[in-house]
Hints:
Elements: H1 50-75, H2 83-112, H3 118-129, H4 136-159, H5 169-184, H6 188-196, H7 202-234, H8 240-251, H9 256-266, H10 280-289, H11 291-295
Helix pairs in contact: 1-2, 1-3, 1-4, 1-7, 2-5, 2-6, 4-5, 4-6, 4-7, 4-9, 5-10
Region (Disordered): 1-23
Organism: Novosphingobium hassiacum
Protein name: Metal-dependent hydrolase
Amino acid sequence: MTAMTPTIALERSAASSKPVPTPADLTITIRDRRFGRNAPPGRWWLNNDPVATAWHNALSATFPRGEAFFIESVKAHRDGAPPKLEAEIRAFVKQEINHTREHVAFNRMAEAAGYDIAKIDKRVEEMLALTKDRPVIVNLAATMALEHYTAMMAHEFLANPAHFAGAEPETANMWRWHAIEEIEHKGVAYDTWLHATKGWSRFKRWKVKSLMMVIVTKNFFTHRVEDTLDLLAQDGLTGAKWKWKLAAYLLWKPGVVRRVFPAWVSYFLPGFHPWQHDDRALIAKMDSEFSDAVMAR
Length: 297
């Protein structure tokens, strides 16, 4: 286990006095890539499956405004951050800006394929408007919980090829590129939280982050399911049959929700830190396997 550096104050496990920090040798790489400009995705780009396509389109529709929120929430607490964390925040911001640009482009292509995603974007805008008058530490807690969601799904997307089996290659490459960088910066919001709450008791820190995760989880699944069903309805696919198909997609095969559940539970454990699970091997594997198809431009 890597020894704790003096640059980041971290929670200690209830079972151990040893900290679990972000790896000292972690490099957050800016991969400035563009996808799909010359070959826009088809209407059902993910294995000709309307359910899988609708789920990912619904996710993507939330990313531009959501990632802008993440950036501002983290930047609000960078003053006084140790040099290592400050550098990681800058890299986090640059990665998220690139993600925003690519999902704006992807969302426009989804609209060109015939989907109306304005309703999803409007609701995200309205929800984020409610955060303007909240304490900035609450927004950081929400960002930290949502970043855990993106990291969990990113790991699953890279570890399990079933998620993008049969997908149009360029679009699948965009999602894998995004997943690589979500894993890479998965500890930044959390380490910023530890920096911003260094004067809090461990119990207060745990209570606030746990309550926020419960709230985020409720809102995340309520709205993503609603959004996915709305997109399916635009294809004329409605009723109990398609609700069951969506449930099966999320819980059975490929079952992203079922498969990330243990990682979700780990968030509530005392002493949790995103880098307790070092999955940088997935980044190296993807960078290697897709160096020609994904990374070379």
